[in-house]
Specification:
This protein is 71% helix and 0% strand. The chain is built from 13 helices and no strands. Helix 4 packs across helix 12.
Length: 300
């Protein structure tokens, strides 16, 4: 019995580990699969509940309600444009600042780091921020999506920590060969920081893609600047109002066919529409994601 015990331990461990991972996978995937099922289910039938992983009454009406407005297509391209442009510019400028404060020979690196980090904990509030955007003449302009978020303190810290782990000999040899700071940063440092840059790029892209409050505050009066998330938010709000009005008029009987879509079903369709672009991009960055976070969070 004693001899067989060491042989049973790996079997028991791998069995329990597999069961735990399967349970974790189910818990993780179920909300998305349930949302997908609800989005393809008829809105009137969704009110009854009891939908889990498969639609009970198949319908594309929820997605038709999302795409029926012609403004949704222009809003989609505005969201794509702001996501791509803001990600590229913010990533380049943030990494440039991170490289500057990562160099030990730069005497002002500690004061600048403290000033940048303080912005993570303190801000003036929404009203002063609005007046700042107004004074910068960014209201109702596309640049209001780009300029305010050019530098991120958290992203700068992650990239700086990663850069501090690079061998000093690479940078010193580049300077010996006559390369300046910008040339060293562009041709030596950036190519070595692909994992952390891909991770931070995903952070920025997801934040830009999901943002709608800045559109509401600074560009809601310009339809051509409306973003996808803002249009979907307006659609959800209007659906909730219509559903409430119909329920008040005809009664709250769940079996009554009040509307073709309901807030629950339209919310599910909106969630899927907003998530699909990020889901398509994520697999290409996944191999960098965990690796970049691990290396960017450690310091020798």
């Amino acid at each position: 019995m004693r001899r067989s015990t060491p042989q049973l331990e790996p079997v028991v461990f791998h069995t329990l580990n597999t069961l735990a991972m399967l349970m974790l996978a189910v818990v993780t995937l179920y909300p998305f699969l349930n949302t997908l099922a609800v989005s393809f289910n008829a809105g009137n039938d969704t009110i009854r509940g009891g939908i889990y992983l498969w639609p009970r009454v198949w319908s594309l009406q929820n997605y038709k309600a999302v795409f029926v407005s012609g403004t949704i297509y222009n809003a989609f391209w505005v969201s794509v444009a702001r996501t791509v442009i803001a990600t590229v510019i913010s990533l380049f400028l943030t990494s440039m600042l991170a490289y500057t404060v990562s160099r030990r020979e730069y005497v002002f690196r500690k004061p600048i780091t403290i000033i940048v980090v303080l912005t993570m904990y303190f801000n003036a509030g929404l009203i002063p921020y609005y007046f700042l955007i107004k004074d910068l003449n960014l209201l109702n302009k596309f640049l209001v999506y780009i300029i305010p978020g050019l530098i991120s303190a958290f992203n700068m810290i992650v990239i700086r920590t990663y850069m501090q782990q690079l061998p000093d000999g690479l940078i010193e040899s580049a300077k010996i060969d006559g390369a300046g700071d910008f040339r060293t940063f562009l041709y030596i440092v950036l190519p070595l920081c692909q994992p952390v840059l891909a991770t931070v790029a995903l952070f920025i892209a997801v934040g830009q893609w999901n943002s709608w409050f800045d559109t509401f505050l600074f560009a809601s009066s310009k339809q051509h600047l409306s973003t996808l998330q803002y249009e979907l938010m307006k659609l959800l709000s209007s659906t909730m109002v219509q559903s409430t009005s119909a329920a008040a008029m005809y009664g709250a009987d769940p079996s009554a066919k009040l509307t073709q879509v309901t807030p629950v079903s339209i919310r599910a369709a909106i969630t899927i529409v907003a998530s699909v672009p990020i889901l398509l991009v994520y697999p290409f960055l996944q191999k960098y994601f965990v690796h970049g976070l691990q290396l960017g969070s450690m310091k020798d």
